[in-house]
Every structure is written in C-alpha cells, then in structure tokens.
Amino acid sequence: MLNFDFYNPTQIMFGKGRIADLDKVIPAGAKVLVLYGGGSIKQNGVFDQVMSALGARSITEFSGIEPNPSYETLMQAVESVKKNQIDFLLAVGGGSVIDGTKFVAAASLFDGADSWAILEKGGRNVTQALPFGSVLTLPATGSEMNNGGVVTRKSIKAKMAFSSRHCFPKFSILDPTTTFTLPMRQVGNGAVDAYVHVMEQYMTYPVNSPVQDRFAEGLLKTLIEEGPKALSNPADYDIRANLMWCATMALNGVISTGVPQDWATHMIGHELTALHGIDHAQTLAIVLPSMLRIRKEGKRAKLLQYAERVWDLRDGSEDSRIDQAINMTQDFFEQMGVKTRLGDYQLNADHIPPILAALETHRMVAIGEKRDVTLDVSRQVLELSL
C-alpha cells in the first residue's frame, strides 16, 4: 500500500426530512447565497423546504448553473457575492451546482487578477474560500463530500478540474426522497458516473490494498444491483438511498487512499463534453470500455480480479475472462440507458483529431496511473470507440 494522507471534514446529514436541519448548521446571522440550476427544485418542493429551513436569514438567489457549470456563469455569481456581501453559500442541486459553488467559494476570495488561474493551476493557488454547504438532489459525482470540481470555459471550449482543502463542503444534506422525480436519463447517468469514479481508483495495478479493493468492489456490485432497480422502481426509498450513498462513497477519498489512480478516461471525456456538449457520464461510458481494451496488458492483474470478484467470472482463459468482464461493463452502461459509442452521439473519425489537439493543448499527453497514456494511446481508444 502506498503512503497516504486522508482528510475529509464534511458533515453528512442523511435521510428523510433532513433539509429542515439546515437551521442547525448555517449561522443564524449568515448572509446566504442559494445557488441552483434550471429551477427543478422549485417544482419538486425542495426549494420550499430550503427556504423554510433558512428562516429569517438574509437570502439571495442565484439560478442558472449549467449541467457543465460554466466559468462565465459562475463569475456572475461571484459578482453577486461581492455585491450582496455574502458570507455563506448553499448549493442546492447535483454535482454541477456543487462544483460550481466550490469555484464561487474560492473565486470570491481569490487575490489573483484572473480567477481562471484557479483552473489553470488546478486549485493549488487557492488559499481561502467562503464556507458553503450543499443539499444534494442528484447522486452522481460525489462532489457533496470531496474538495474538487470541474468548470467549463465556453469561450475557449476548455473543461478543467481543480481541488483544494479549502473547498470541502462544511456539510451536505442527502435526502433520497429528493431524487424521486429525476428524469431516468439523469438516474442512468448518475449510476454510470459513480461506477467510473470507482473504476478510475480501482482499475490500475495491485499494491496489496485489500481494504480499498474490497470496498471498491462492493460499491461496484451495489451499483450493478441497484442501478437497474432505480429505473424500474423510481420511488423506492431504499434503492434511492443505496444509490445516493454509493455515489458519495465513490469519490469522497476513502477508496483512493494508498492506491494508484488512473483518471485518463475522465481527461478524454472532458474534451468530449467541452467540444460536443455530451453529458459527462455519457463520455465516460464511451471511453472506459475502449480504454480497458487498449490497456489490457498494463491492467491485466486488476482486470482478472475485477472479472472474478465483481462479475463472478472464474472459468476460461485469462483473456476470455477479461474480455467478458469488459463486455459486461459496457452492457451495464447500456442497461442504464447510457450509449457507449461515439457514433451514438453523431461523432465519427473526423472528430478525433480536434479531440487529440485539445488534449495536447491542455497538456494531457502523459496521463493514467503510469503516465503512459500518450496521444497515440488516446487516439487508439477513440478509434476503438467509434
């Protein structure tokens, strides 16, 4: 096992009716900016619950944070923070709203001339941030219990990640009932997103870390079992609760302790979103199966372990078990309603060179756990994904 430093200060408040507990965790005299997306929270009752819990506090609203939060929109929120002398942020929504709120929290107190530098430096230049909490309505990204986020700058078609210890939520409220009205597309995307998050931390090479491995495998098996149930039984509380907690645990730092991490699938996926507007989870479903096939030799030991422990594949040659496990992974994504080919999104071979050019521009030319995913490997992955 590798050396590690684990830190996660986020308080999780899980279960039915927990939105009312906002009153206990936000200072009574706080000037609160409530950030959300397209307004679905005003239709499903979540907004009313939040406003009721906030009571007499000074409240300002900021709506319109996109599914891939844009720098341009978030800087408008930063202006609102400064104009209204906001001292506490509350994200109400899914991972995009929470990611965006993290950036607003950091950018509002950033002492540099241009807040885009936060993304250019990956958050390493963040020295302080406004306190914030979240009310999660879409389980997928794990942003409710980690310190990272991803922001897109539309003007230059760049999607960049950042993280900082200053950007952990103070608390996150997870009420599974808030997910009952989600469109099935978002339910499927959420399960796939969480699944690939686990795979990026698990599917590397062995370092004698049975605790992390078994934890990751348990999350994967739970997603495989519960994901399809959520599509057929959307109002089942227990199913939604398991999916919600799975997505949180997939990226809160626990399973990444002491193990190598990959994230090459995400880096390519970010370019697909930035250039073509494909949903984040859809890009991961496109890239991961091909990534595993192209890099089969480097990941052989973990692929065999994955085949046995997650998919119960024990018979046949090593190659046949690996191939079957990758095929079953791709089939699971399809079962969740997430298509897995570039052609499913009207992309063809002509779209590959601009993706590679974007990877090169963003210095993603030696990625993966061994830094051996070169532009040529990325090209092979994309070509296999057609």
From the structure above, extract its key features.
two-stranded antiparallel sheet; Dehydroquinate synthase-like, alpha domain; Rossmann fold; alpha/beta; 386 residues; globular; six-stranded parallel sheet; 2 domains
Number of helices: 14
- The tally of beta strands, per DSSP, is 8
Write down the CATH class of the largest domain. Mainly Alpha
Counted up, domains total 2
Q: Termini distance? A: 37 Å
What is the typical, i.e. mean, pLDDT? 97
SS-based structural class? alpha/beta
Low-confidence stretches: none
Q: What would CATH call the architecture of the largest domain?
A: Up-down Bundle
Please list the strands of the largest sheet in the order they lie side by side. 1-8-5-4-2-3
The main β sheet shows up as: 6 strands, parallel
Shape, please? globular
Element-by-element helix/strand order: EHEHEHEHHEEEEHHHHHHHHH
Quote the beta fraction.
Answer: 5-15%
CATH topology of the largest domain: Dehydroquinate synthase-like, alpha domain
Helix residue percentage: 40-55%
Look at the structure and name the CATH superfamily of the largest domain: Dehydroquinate synthase-like - alpha domain
Rg, rounded, reads 20 Å
Please, could you describe this protein's structure?
There is one protein chain. This protein is of the alpha/beta class and 386 residues long. The chain has two domains: 11-179, Rossmann fold; 184-384, Dehydroquinate synthase-like - alpha domain (Dehydroquinate synthase-like, alpha domain, Up-down Bundle), CATH 1.20.1090. 45% of the residues lie in helices and 11% in strands. The protein contains 14 helices and eight strands. The protein has helices at residues 22-25, 46-54, 71-83, 95-107, 117-120, 184-202, 210-232, 237-250, 264-276, 280-294, 300-309, 318-335, 352-361, 375-384; strands spanning 11-14, 31-35, 58-62, 88-94, 132-138, 148-153, 158-163, 171-174. The strands form two sheets. It has a six-stranded parallel β-sheet, sandwiched between helices. Strands 6-7 form a two-stranded antiparallel sheet. The two termini are 37 Å apart. The mean pLDDT is 97.
